[in-house]
Amino acid sequence: MPSVFRRRAALALSLAVTAGLVTGLPTQPAAAEPAAGTVEVTAPRLTGRATLPSDYLAPGPRSGREVTPANGVEGPFDGQVIPGFSGAVADDNGTFWALPDNGFGTKANSEDFRLRIYKVRPRWQQPDASGELTGSGAIQVLDYIELRDPDHHISWPIVNEDRAGRRLTGGDFDVESIQRMADGSFWIGEEFGPYLLHVSRNGKVLSAPVSSPVGRAPQHHDLGGAQPTVRSSGGFEAMAASPDGRYLYPILENSLVDDADQRRRVVAEFDTTTGAYTDRRWDYRVDTDANLVADAQMVEPGKLMVLERDNFDGEAAMIKRIYTVDLDETEPSGALVKTLHTDLLKIDNPDLIGAGAGWGTGETYSFGFQSTETIVPMPDGQIMLVNDNNYPGNAARVPGIPDDTEMIMIDPDAEREQAVNAVPVIAHRGASGSRPEHTLAAYALAIRQCADVIEPDVVSTSDGVLVARHENEISGTTDVANRPEFADRRTTKTIDGVAVTGWFTEDFTLGELRTLRAKERLPQVRPENTRFDGLYPVPTLTEVLDLARHSRTCTGEPVGVAPEIKHPTYFDSIGLSMEEPLVEELEAAGLNEADAPVVIQSFETTNLKQLARRTPVQLSQLINCSGAPYDLVAAGDDRTYADLVSRAGLREISRYADKVGYCKDVMIPRQADGTLGEPTAAIADAHRYRLDVVGWTFRVENQFLPTEFKSSADPNADGDLAGEIQVFLDAGMDELFSDNPDVAVAAVTED
């Protein structure tokens, strides 16, 4: 069975040699053996930080006359705003050429914003040899190049059409990515066409803008009456260059409008020597359809770093990652194989660089800006990153205050020791104690919190697509009740013998379901989670599997997935059997293997017996505290969960399953006063038949804890979850589910 489900601390010490999987880069030999209960891993580390004040004004005419007010700021401004940087290239002596975008977001509100490339020098705040922080931490603006078209290479009218110099503005182009050639000229990728622009070392347009070969955006100058195929602001946010500068690799930020696969981002190849695109194309597939490709750099021939991000800001962010791809390696689907390089929401910061500057600036540093848009690989292996702050719109660090432009330097190959979970921690519906359950945000946070496994409950849409929801009735976990267009879908159904009224996934197509947004299921218990209501869509199982296989645990192992099939008898009865598509999903993800970090769970028995003949992955029989599996009830079989926990029942389970998932009371019942009683024989009996025992569900709030571990009479206050977990571990429990993986991980890594 996979080690992710059977790991112990002693065994995990042997995994140090695999720790480089965290970043995908080679590690240096360890100077000493890791401490007991830890492994040596590589993980990104913050090595420098510098900022430019959000309200910094460069010389030039007033800008921002039409800017949308935000965070207490409105234009116009007495100079040229620098609204962060969307692209950058390294220059000499620690300086960079950095490119802001079109200014304020649209053609209409950016006509007074001049397109420039700024030369900047970050005066890094960084530790010296003694560990003391040095450097001012300021970004110096040294010079700038203004883009202009005096030779009329642009054949359509521009904002400054009749003005001397024909300076370009944000009303003309939305410049987003940049590469510098050996002769000092720049190639720039932009979004309104999307176009490629070639400008001289002093900013003069050298040739006509080159249109994308894969489609046109709504702002293209020559769209005519045709329908746009590239989304607005979905053009060349990212553009890599081959090391010799001959080829450029612009990547669409978003999907094509009519693409059947809305997660596909097209990579093209442009030959700078001929000034034309080649016929080579690749598909890069983002983690979820709303994610964007923000930047790309070629680190060696054919191998790219790709910066992928969601569109959320600050604490709401879920995906800000660097992946590596090889243009010669594709999956069976045709998409490029992705390998996680760096999770920018979890950067080690032991030197406390920038500490106290707002959210995400502590010992774990988060580069969680909405527009995390620039990566620059450095010759020494470090990576420089900078944000576009969408001035004055973004406020990731301090709510209500516009973000500064922030440049950071990270070492993606830094070494440190990582504590190993003594038993696997399974994130119950993700980090559902901190984010609305069954969202990619909850799953991604759980991974950052060092969970070993993420757990999606699986139900079906009307068109047979498997999605992650706690139940098929979704009024408690989405905003469907507030959507008048779906009011007529409210109905009453009998699910597993119980009448349930609400809205059901099987009455929605995937397209309809994706218009809904998740909300906190227990708002009275977890009011803090309601801050994220309305942000995240319902994820498909495919997305959950892809997130897991494109991630790594804190110790560098593959992230496990434990899908639970909900109400299988009911879904079979309406012609939406889930077992077959689940196996197909695993096969497509390359996870339908005996050693895959996957375990399929069910409270019913028949479907697990069927799956035992159809898939080699592990299976887990879930056992409730009371009642009976509904498939047995429907078949007239009078066996209950209590019967399944008998030795005879466990012996039968061992013939088709690898694990049993016990309700906590099955292992240690509670006494009349709410305290824990004596352990039953359930754990020892399961072990007799070589079944791993998984306990569910460990939650931090007092109302879910035994009396002796409550902190107060407040049912929603945090109690001593670690203490409760320890009692169950002492009783022999092998794995555990928790809504609070961070607390559970701390409990199972303590000496």
From TrEMBL:
Outline the segment boundaries, as ranges, of region: Disordered: 50-72
Source domain of life: Bacteria
What's an example GO cellular component term for this entry? periplasmic space
Q: Name one GO biological process term.
A: lipid metabolic process
Q: Does the keyword Nucleotidyltransferase apply?
A: no
InterPro entries from the entry? Answer: GP_PDE_dom, Phytase-like_dom, PLC-like_Pdiesterase_TIM-brl, TAT_signal
**What start and end residues bound the annotated signal peptide?**
1-32
Q: Which residues form the GP-PDE domain?
A: 423-748
Enzyme class at the top of the EC tree:
hydrolase
- Write down the chemical reaction(s) this protein catalyses: a sn-glycero-3-phosphodiester + H2O = an alcohol + sn-glycerol 3-phosphate + H(+)
Keyword Hydrolase belongs to the record: yes
Identify the keywords attached in UniProt to this record, alphabetized: Glycerol metabolism, Hydrolase, Signal
Q: Pfam families, alphabetically?
A: GDPD (PF03009), Phytase-like (PF13449)
Q: Which GO terms describe its molecular function?
A: glycerophosphodiester phosphodiesterase activity
Q: What EC designation does it have? A: 3.1.4.46
The family annotation for this protein states: Belongs to the glycerophosphoryl diester phosphodiesterase family.
The record's PANTHER family line, in alphabetical order, gives: GLYCEROPHOSPHODIESTER PHOSPHODIESTERASE GDPD5-RELATED (PTHR43620:SF7), GLYCEROPHOSPHORYL DIESTER PHOSPHODIESTERASE (PTHR43620)
Write the protein's name: glycerophosphodiester phosphodiesterase
